[in-house]
Amino acid sequence: MALPATPGEPLIDVLNRSGMELPQVCYHPQLGAIQTCDTCLVEVNGELIRACGTRVSGNMTVQTETRGARDSRAAAFDKILGNHLLYCTVCDNNNGNCVVHNTTALLQVQHQVTPYHPKPYLKDESNPFYRYDPDQCILCGRCVEACQNLQVNETLSINWEDPHPRVLWDGGRPINESSCVSCGHCVTVCPCNALMETSMLGEAGLMTDLPLPVFQQAVDFVKAAEPSIGYGPILTLSDTEAAMREQSIERTKTVCTYCGVGCSFEVWTKERHILKIEPTHGPANGVSTCIKGKFAWDHINSEERLTTPLIREGDRFREASWEEALSLIARKFNETRAQYGPDALAFIASSKCTNEEAWLMQKLARAVVGTNNMDNCSRYCQSPATMGLWRTVGYGGDSGSITDLEKAGLVIGIGTNTAESHPVLATRVKRSHKLRGQRLIVADLREHEMAQRADLFVRPKPATDFVWLSAVTKYILDEGLESRDFLEQWVNGLDEYRESIARFTLDYAEEVTGISQDELRQIAHEIVQADGTCIMWAMGVTQQCGGSETSTAISNLLLVTGNYMRPGAGSYPLRGHNNVQGASDMGAMPAFMGGYQKVDDPVVREKFQAKWGVPLPEAKGLDNHEMVHAIHEGTLRVMYLKGEEMAIVDSNVNYVDEAFEKLDFFVVQDMFFSRTAQFADVVLPASPSLEKDGTFTNTERRIQRLYKALEPLGGSKPDWEIIQLVANAMGANWNYTHPSQIMDEIASLVPLYAGVTYERLEGFKSLQWPVLPDGSDTPLLFTQGFPFPDGKARLYPAEFLPPVEVPDAEYDLHFNNGRMLEHFHEGNMTFQSAGITSKVPGTFVEVSPELAAERGLESGRQVRLVSRHGAVRLPVHVTERVQGRQLYMPMNTQDAQQAVNRLTGSHTDLSTHTPAYKDTAVRMEILPEMGENPLPRINHRYGRPTPQRGVEVERKWLRSDYRFPGDDPRRTPVARQVAPEQAGGDD
Fold first, then answer.
1. How distant, in Å, are the alpha carbons of 210, 286, 492 from that of 141?
2. How far apart are CA 100 and CA 111, in angstroms?
3. 173, 320, 610, 848: least surrounded by Cβ within 10 Å?
């Protein structure tokens, strides 16, 4: 029969698409052709070849069921069984998806010819999250391919030349002493039980927790029975046991609750035990995860979870019923509103919660209380990026998808530690850079992983990115290198913009930024010559006094060079939290209703009033920065905050703490008794993502559903239910019974979400806004113009705002801060994981070797950092990641007294009030106490990766004991098997 195919696509994909059952142990569509197993052999035009490593061409005659093909596949798989001990019934991986088990059944193997031989290696159980069993490893190389060419951490390899090959970490180190970042890619793609999550071991099966002697007896019994009864009855027994597991194991689709990448996967649960996270085909991540998304779920069942409301009595809290807590909240809210007016109350939504919950929080503020005092944590990170994009292109979101970052000819990262803050997104850039020749330029203060990988890494002086961006843009215009056709057709304001950047010459930029003129010219020419440029940026840009201006400069540069309105180009402000984009989309902001519709627009208000049946406030409300000042001034008296650790993450937290102490009444809603909750009058116990339904919107504007996997713990409740209870206690009459009803309301009022329904988001389906009423979405923005009246973008004459706190004689060091891979934000969730805490037990300050030598410092020395706003005491870690008089402090800590924001001030981005966290000067006092290096030796940063081009299967083919199935042993198979387009992993 004829099969439709696209020239150049892998033949195996065509055969799989047709529904043909063809064995393929090593092949994985997201890894490409690895070619280690030989189980997908077919005859093409009479020649025996691997279907995975063969590209489709015209007039191919493919035969899958010839005698030669069948026998060769069986012989290849038999060799695999020689590396693997089949004991499926008592194996935790016997869950219907074990490739080795399923291939044994597919090929109807009754007896294996190649005897099993154990390997002379012990299991590696050093990593807290997974273990490697060499005796079960079939040497398919999937894990190596995933590590080398998908995650691109380049830790794993196989020593093909060894008499007993195995998978190696950093060439042979224990896993926990290697460069392994515990991303879980290797475990996810392993086709058997060689790599398994420790959370699965002894937990998944009915008989997998047998004591070792009994377990070994069971395995010996199976092997003894196989010669006489064959594998058929044995597999039937294991299939029966696997079917019985279905009664106790639930597999629920969810979306990661950490960063803004929006990874989706299935969570496997057995009662409340989380067996594992299984990524398969998430639209943003595929099979990829990071250490947090794959393994950091201990917070769900933490003993520290809040399970009942708490009410303050003096300096203590007592447990209370929901009825009592809600009654108290309603009374205090109503009394305050009656006495001081609705603007005496303020509300803060959470970027960790769902879209539906953010919607109800802003609806509570506006429709029940009557105030626009409403904000969310985008104020702390991404509001300046949104402002810069609103000014220039009209939409405050990524202009394309993560796939566009993969397609780009050039990616520029500015102020973004992408590999640690957005690790799965970073893998796509690293993969394209390694395998497809994508160019990478990084501008940052620290030499993090992306900087080390970059083709050009520049270290501008703090808060001077605006200057070099404008200088590069001016140079492009002066040299006539701009995209003239694009500017003429799609952009306004060129003349005014030229005038605004007249002073930003290369000389001036070199003087202000420290970047050489040659490097600036190189950046300009790389952008102009690239087949599409994407610029991604994050808090290194936005958390400055000029964050909005620099974000505007980025978009201006992209407009001048024609890098909008096409795939593989555009602006990518990387959102920090899982739903910071969605919380803003929902109108959890002081000046906007849902979908960025202005609160002072009478047409907008009329639409919402007609739907909600109440009058709405007209004036812009307070943002969370202004709220703190208003508390000190006595005009803001009551606050309701959910899911945000404001007492740690806001800038100048000493000032924030004082404000919280002054509140008349404070309600905090959270999973844990956080630092912020310590200031509350009522604490309400909320449920995490696995205990609720809803949607998140990721950094690429992708809306995805999450499903409830577990019932709420104790008396905790999903946030949407709690907000509805508060609203109704105040006299509202809300009657939502499921978040889908809330989304229906959102779709009716928010044009960006007009076509969003739960049915259209079912399973792993997703939509990227704007979504039209018919469900059509917009992966690539600006395909037919820009959302301005004339359809044209605008070059905006932004202004350079220099830093406020430049180091001086007293405060002589620049204090930088940000995220680490292992922890998320302040660490309230990730410190619940013992494995992660073992890798990074607490915070520290990074000091450069030159500064350490100057001041006699070594790792482990205690120091006191003092700024104009406060002080912290913490240990030193000496590292080349920082340079000169730059310091870097991770924001994660279990001790609020060590928080980064004991040092930061109250100065902000002028346009958005985003705190200028990165604009801080400190002095260092060296203390006598000396301890251990705060970064333990088991941290991956001490490892030494072993980069290579994938599994390097050619080395296997050169082994003296390798024979291509079906070949005459006197023939050399390698010559006709190695072709450039077939070499492992380039698909």
1. 30, 19, 53
2. 14
3. 610
Residue 41: what pLDDT?
95
Please enumerate in sequence order all residues whose Cβ is within 8 A of that of 623, keeping only pairs 6 or more positions apart, or say none. 375, 379, 589, 590, 912, 913
Looking at the DSSP assignment, which residues form a beta bridge with residue 410?
A: 439, 533
| Residue 754: how many other CB atoms lie within 10 Å | 18
For residue 873, pLDDT beyond 80: yes
Q: Are 378 and 608 in contact (CB under 8 A)?
A: no
The answer to whether the beta carbons of residues 545 and 463 sit under 8 Å apart is yes
The answer on pLDDT for 977 being more than 50 is no
pLDDT at 974 over 70: no
Please report, rounded to a whole number, the percentage of residues in the chain having pLDDT higher than 70. Answer: 98
Q: Which of 348, 387, 374, 346 is nearest to 544 (CA)?
A: 387
Q: What is the pLDDT of residues 427-454, one digit of tens each?
A: 999 999 999 999 999 999 999 999 999 9
Give the tokens for residue 849: 């070797």
Chain centre distance of CA 634: 40
Query: Which of these, 196, 200, 201, lies nearest to 130 by C-alpha position?
Result: 196
Query: What is each CA distance from 879 to 592, 758, 847, 857, 960, in whole angstroms?
Result: 44, 48, 6, 11, 45
How far apart CA 984 and CA 987 sit, in angstroms, is 8
| pLDDT (average), residues 641-650 | 93
What secondary structure does DSSP assign to 179-204, as a single string? Answer: S-----HHHHH-SSSSEEETTTTTTS
What is the Cα–Cα distance from 358 to 739, expressed in whole angstroms?
Answer: 11
The answer to whether the beta carbons of residues 574 and 421 sit under 8 Å apart is yes
Q: How far apart are CA 414 and CA 790, in angstroms?
A: 31
In one-letter notation, the amino acid at residue 771 is: V
**Does position 369 have pLDDT exceeding 50, yes or no?**
yes
Provide DSSP, 725-743: HHHHHTT------SHHHHH
How long, in residues, is the chain? Answer: 987
Tell me the pLDDT of the chain averaged across its residues: 94
CA–centroid distance for 669 within its chain: 25
Q: Is the peptide bond before 770 cis (omega within 30 degrees of 0)?
A: yes
Give the end-to-end CA distance of the chain in Å, rounded to a whole number: 26
DSSP H helices in 120-259: 142-149, 185-189, 212-229, 231-245
Q: List, for residues 577-634, the tens digit of each pLDDT value.
A: 999 999 999 999 999 999 999 999 999 999 999 999 999 999 999 999 999 999 999 9
Please give the DSSP secondary-structure letter assigned to residue 930: E
In this prediction the pTM is 0.95
Kindly provide the residue ranges of all beta strands, DSSP E only, lying in 546-601, ordered along the sequence. 570-573, 592-593, 597-598
Q: What is the phi-psi region of residue 983: left when phi exceeds 0, alpha when psi lies from -120 to 50, beta otherwise?
A: beta
Q: What's the CA gap between 471 and 877, in Å, rounded?
A: 36
Give the type of residue at 719: D
Best CA proximity match to 130, nearest among 172, 169, 97: 169
- Quick: pLDDT tens for 453-509: 999 999 999 999 999 999 999 999 999 999 999 999 999 999 999 999 999 999 999
Q: What angle do CA 856, 857, 858 make, to 5 degrees?
A: 130
- Name the percent of the chain in helix, strand, coil, to the closest 5: 35, 15, 50
What tens digit of pLDDT does each residue of 302-361 get? 999 999 999 999 999 999 999 999 999 999 999 999 999 999 999 999 999 999 999 999
Dump pLDDT digits (tens) for 824-857.
988 999 999 999 999 999 999 999 999 999 999 9
| CA distance to 125, 167, 580, 668, per residue, from 290 (Å) | 20, 20, 19, 30
Q: Are 599 and 592 in contact (CB under 8 A)?
A: yes
| Residue 701 CB partners (closer than 8 Å, separation 6+) | 397, 398, 581, 768, 769, 778
